[in-house]
Amino acid sequence: MQSKIAVVLAVSTALASSALAEPSQELIDAAKREGMLTTIALPHNWCNYGAVIQGFKDKYGLKVNELNPNAGSADELEAVKANRGNTGPQAPDVLDVGLSFGPAAKAQNLLQPYKVSTWDSIPDDAKDPEGYWYGDYYGVLGFAVNKDIFPEAPTSFEALKDSSYGSAVALQGDPRTGNSVMMAVYAAGVAEGGEPGEDAMNKGIRYFKTLQDNGNLVPVNGNAQNLAQGTTPIYFDWDYNLLAMRDELDGNPPVEVIVPSDAVIAGVYVQAISAYAPHPNAAKLWMEYLYSDEGQLKWLDGYCHPIRFNDMNERGIISKTMLDKLPPAQNYAKAVFPSLADQAAAKSAVAANWGTEMGQ
């Protein structure tokens, strides 16, 4: 079996104590002498980044220069390349990119290594061992349920096969063109016993073929409007999107977000420091803040699961109020992250087989 990120609930005393570490005064002083941090691709409404940035400024008194909040991961790498040797305000210090872009940026010598004080509480398979990039937050594939239509929400992929969910289950679109949709199919395959990669995807395709044949799969894209109207009363997406949608609907209708008990498949973003950062000490201090309990909890306030979630939950750092807004923590403890090789194999399989199996 190919390696996966396994986020475990239990942590050792050594890991717990490391999570309480603070940045050195020497680093804080050096960052303050630089006076500024330049970020890129951090919209304030994504993962609660507005509050994260404000918290960093309030704590350390540094100015934060925000570049192109709506940039994508590829844009971030291009910004680093375009600003080699540039110490002006257009050169990003830090990056927040999709998983595949971390190793790619390292291979292109665009990153510099740095291990934060809480390094040991970041799962080993969620970080580059040399500290060039490391997971920051993740989402898991789940489904939302309109509780007006289904007061007792199903809790697994297996349950959705039941005839009581006729004309109820939807994907957001075509898994050949959307990553979250592809990973929903992949998760179903894992629930069906599929091995990582191609096997899981093919079993996932057969799973949705079963739902189609028994009349449970709706040939309409799932979204908030269709869920509220009852057209797609159950649909799949990343949990952070579903939880935000639930809050926006504000009980009209009541919505429950389910992390399936039989497959918890996660996708992670990663942080890194530019090799050409004009403010390298501010960049390191930013990383210390993001990976502190305070920074991680601010991401969680935006429903992005911080990479140290299980460590903090074990230590009782996460409030009951926040935990009550989330699906059960024990489900997240089972989260696995398909490797880049697994995802590539799955993408090839869905491109080759989805249309043939589903008649599309």
TrEMBL record:
Coiled coil: none annotated. The keyword Signal applies. Pfam families: SBP_bac_6. Keywords: Signal. Residues 1-21 form the signal peptide. PANTHER family: ABC TRANSPORTER SUBSTRATE-BINDING PROTEIN, THIAMINE-BINDING PERIPLASMIC PROTEIN-RELATED. This is ABC transporter substrate-binding protein. The lineage of its organism: Bacteria, Pseudomonadati, Pseudomonadota, Alphaproteobacteria, Hyphomicrobiales.
